[in-house]
Q: What sequence folds into this?
């Protein structure tokens, strides 16, 4: 089973992303998508359970990069995607090997293509 986690403290965006993931043609039976509004809650729950993790870069407490660092300590193979409306990629972000960097507010078609590619890469791995 492939499991997807979306971690974002904006509840509206969190639910929009979940809908986009679950409506993707690449999201098939036997896949699951969970959401977390708090990075620490995700880290306490994860334990290597997710093959695709979509992380908001800016959240109260621990942000996406901090979560990705801790995730990489446990799992070298999970597909990680960062998502942000304001934070641009920095060289240190690539130390955790994100597969994609999504921009909040980008056009819907671009976001759908990105999600499809994320799910394809997750299946490939």
A:
């Amino acid at each position: 089973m492939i499991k997807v986690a979306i971690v974002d403290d904006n509840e509206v965006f969190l639910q929009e992303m979940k809908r986009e993931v679950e409506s993707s043609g690449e999201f098939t039976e036997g896949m699951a998508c969970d959401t977390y509004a708090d990075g620490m809650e995700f880290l306490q729950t994860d334990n290597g359970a997710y093959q695709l993790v979509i992380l908001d870069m800016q959240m109260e407490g621990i942000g996406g990069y901090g979560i990705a660092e801790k995730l990489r300590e446990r799992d070298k193979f999970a597909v990680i995607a960062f998502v942000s409306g304001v934070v641009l990629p920095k060289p240190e972000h690539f130390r955790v090997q994100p597969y994609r960097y999504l921009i909040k507010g980008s056009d819907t078609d671009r976001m759908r293509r990105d999600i499809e590619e994320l799910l394809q890469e997750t299946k490939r791995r």
